[in-house]
Write a structure and sequence with these properties.
single chain, 398 residues, mainly beta, seven-stranded mixed sheet, six-stranded mixed barrel, 9 helices, 15% helix, globular, protease
Length: 398
């Protein structure tokens, strides 16, 4: 599961334990192709609750209409809805010799996996990391992550070899799950998560550990990685280089604020149908979140352009007729306008009739900042760049 099972236990700490230096195998750049995973249905309000829970530790509070709608849907009332959409982008990673398919998440900083320590009742169908074959236990180190929908995972920590696209970290912190929630149990395509946010929000106690990227970045040709998600098909994560064939025009860079541990930046004004929607402001680029969460005024102004749209208490968010004309969404970043096609904002049916659809844009009520998830990112080519004195993000059209 990529898009809805998001993760970021937002724990700040003054000390960060760095893993042993990475060893570059054969080259100083590498590419990881994503795997188009099977479909696991997650209705709109459930996706929203996962995001509110993800950012709860920085004050996000879900509106009651969202939590109530999500609670009803989690009971299985909409489980029969078979709609397919881009919810998972998984990448093959070798962890201690076992190949696992992991969700790469720029909104969190933990590398955790299903393991042989996970009870069989919770891990059926998953590939599992066996720490006994190669891992070195970090005595007394634990981790515990809470996710949306009351899902989560926890366990112990090992140092082991992790290989991504030909680059080897010889002593990477690997968080082996001893307990996972039902939501993870059901998503048998996903064997864990590889966080790509800043190591300051890693959840390991008593001492935080570094992300895989922070471990290997010193060995790369360039200290950056790029994200090229695709609509309806697999994309790529490229590390150490920028593939000029994957974007058009020029790359527009903006500075990143790292205070909260995220790839956080300031976005400008939004428009649709040549009409101003207002300013977006403080935003996070998060591959681990599916939807776009925008300021309330921007969101309502956007849906005012869609005939029949409504902010539904029953659905837990904005819905509209599935056959509605959904306008493209435009957002200014670094003085340049970037476009999300309207078809991406037609997220998924909101009911069993298939007549009403849940919007891929929802208000960021209770979150405090904008989150640009995969609805936005799969329309972009994005550079997560640490080659300069301060981190920056680069955006270009695909």
């Amino acid at each position: 599961m990529h898009t809805f099972i998001t993760s970021a236990a937002l724990v700040a700490s003054a000390s960060v334990a760095f893993a042993a230096p990475a060893q570059l195998v054969g080259r100083s750049t590498f590419q990881v192709k994503q795997i188009a995973a099977g479909k696991v249905y997650r209705p709109g309000p459930v996706a929203m609750m996962q995001t509110y829970n993800k950012y709860a530790k920085v004050g996000a509070v879900a509106p009651s209409v969202v939590s109530n709608a999500a609670a009803a849907l989690q009971s299985g009332s909409v489980a029969a809805n078979p709609e397919q959409y881009d919810e998972s982008y998984l990448c093959p990673v070798q962890v201690g010799g076992q190949t696992l398919n992991l969700d790469f998440d720029t909104g969190s900083a933990d590398l955790w996996v299903f393991s042989t320590l996970t009870p069989a009742s919770e891990s059926t169908g998953h590939a599992k990391y066996n720490p006994k074959t190669s891992g070195k236990a970090k005595s007394g180190y634990t981790w515990n992550i809470s996710y949306g929908d009351n899902s989560g995972a926890s366990g112990t920590v090992y140092a082991d070899k992790v290989v991504v696209g030909g680059v080897t970290a010889t002593s990477q912190a690997v968080e082996a799950a001893t307990s996972v929630s039902t939501q993870f149990m059901q998503d048998t395509d996903n064997d864990g998560l590889l966080g790509l946010a800043f190591s300051t929000i890693n959840t390991v106690q008593p001492q935080q550990q570094t992300t895989f990227f922070d471990t290997v970045k010193g060995t790369l040709a360039k200290k950056l990685f790029t994200v090229d998600l695709k609509a309806g098909t697999a994309g790529t994560y490229d590390f150490g280089y920028i593939d000029n064939s994957k974007y058009s025009g020029t790359i527009t860079y903006v500075p990143v604020k790292t205070t909260n541990g995220f790839w956080e930046f300031t976005a400008g004004a939004a428009t649709a149908n040549n009409r101003s929607l207002g300013s977006v402001g403080d935003a996070i680029a998060d591959t681990g979140t599916t939807l776009m969460y925008l300021p309330t005024a921007v969101t309502s102004a956007y849906y005012a352009q869609i005939s029949g749209s409504t902010n539904s208490a029953d659905a837990g968010g904005y819905i509209f007729p599935c056959d509605a004309d959904v306008p493209d969404f435009h957002i200014a970043i670094g003085g340049k306008s970037f476009t999300v096609p309207g078809e991406y904002i037609n997220f998924t049916p909101a009911d069993n009739s298939g007549e009403q659809c849940f919007g891929g844009i929802q208000p960021n009520t209770g979150i405090g900042f904008t989150i640009l998830g995969d609805v936005f990112l799969k329309a972009m080519f994005v550079v997560f760049d640490q080659t300069t004195s301060a981190p920056r993000l680069g955006f270009a059209a695909q």
